[in-house]
Amino acid sequence: MRCPTVVATAGILCLAASSLRAGEPERQPSPNAGAIVRVVDSVLAGLTLQEKIGQLVQYSGGWSTGPSGRRISDEQRQIIRAGQTGSLLNVTGAAETHELQRIAVEESRARIPLLFGLDVIHGFKTTFPIPLAEAASWDPDAVELSARVSATEAAASGVHWTFAPMVDIARDPRWGRIAEGSGEDPYLGARMAAARVRGFQGASLRDPASIIACAKHYAGYGGAEGGRDYNTADIPQRTLRDVYLVPFKAALDAGAQTFMASFNEIDGVPSSGSRFLLTTILRDEWKFDGFVVSDWNSIGELIPHGFAANPGEAAERAINAGLDMDMESHCYRDSLESLVRQGRVTIATLDEAVRRVLRVKFRLGLFSDPYHGATPERERQELRNPAHVAAARKMARESIVLMKNAGSLLPLPPNLKSIAVIGPLASNHGDLVGTWAGPTDTNDVVTLLDGIRETAPGAQVTYVQGCSIAGAETTGIASAAAAARQSEVVILAVGESEDMSGEASCRSSLELPGRQKDLVREVCATGKPVVVIFMNGRPLDLSWEQNHVPAILETWFLGHEAGHAIADVLFGAYAPTGRLPVTFPRSVGQVPIYYNHKNTGRPTDDQEHYTSRYLDLPSSPLYPFGFGLTYTSFRYADLRIARETVKAADTLLVTITLTNTGLRAGDETVQLYVRDEVGSVTRPVRELKGFQHVHLDAGGSTVVTLSLPVDALAFTGLDMRHRVEPGMFTVYVGPNAAEGLQGRFQVVPQ
Ligand code: GLC
Question: pTM for the full model?
Answer without folding.
Answer: 0.95
